[in-house]
Design a protein that fits this description.
Number of strands: 2
CATH architecture: Orthogonal Bundle
Helix content: 40-55%
Oligomer: single chain
CATH topology: Arc Repressor Mutant, subunit A
Largest sheet: 2 strands, antiparallel
Order of helices and strands: HHHEEHHHH
CATH class: Mainly Alpha
Strand order of the largest sheet: 1-2
Length: about 150
């Protein structure tokens, strides 16, 4: 399974913006340079991020982008959904009665992949830009399977 380039670049750019844009707008060329991302790609992503109100722009010589909400309120899942489809772990649609095989049946591993998708979704919904900026995402230390089980109840 692979997170899309759109999603990875958007998260990288938003973390950069959260880090460097606290007091003033940040230009996309600055983000592109620091994160080594292609500027035309960032322009497309920021159009989507702006449409979903995650960022706001300002014009002029000192223009650029700012977060539209505090970093602790912007979940990584929100950023990914703004630019791309949710992370998909099965061949068929999640929670669909029709399975992923040609016969319409679910494959033997369907439930495994669907549960993995649920764990990924839950994790991305719990992590914010502020968590990343403050280095609070350190693997399973913060997000344990116990927390996953409690969240599912």
């Amino acid at each position: 399974m692979k997170v899309s380039t759109k999603a990875r670049y958007a998260v990288m750019a938003m973390v950069d913006l959260a880090t460097h844009g606290k007091d003033h707008p940040v230009s996309l060329p600055e983000i592109a340079l620091r994160q080594e991302l292609p500027l035309p790609y960032l322009e497309q992503l920021f159009n989507k991020l702006k449409k979903t109100s995650l960022v706001k722009s300002s014009r002029g010589s000192a223009g650029g982008y700012l977060l539209n909400h505090p970093a602790q309120e912007i979940r990584i899942l929100d950023v990914i959904h703004a630019v791309d489809r949710p992370v998909k772990t099965t061949r068929c649609e999640n929670h669909s009665p029709k399975g992923c095989q040609n016969s319409g049946m679910r494959c033997l591993t369907h439930d495994l992949w669907e549960e993995l998708g649920a764990v990924i979704h839950l994790f991305l919904a719990k992590v914010t830009l502020a968590d990343i900026c403050d280095r609070r995402v350190l693997g399973l230390g913060r997000f344990s399977f116990q927390a996953f089980e409690e969240a599912r109840k």
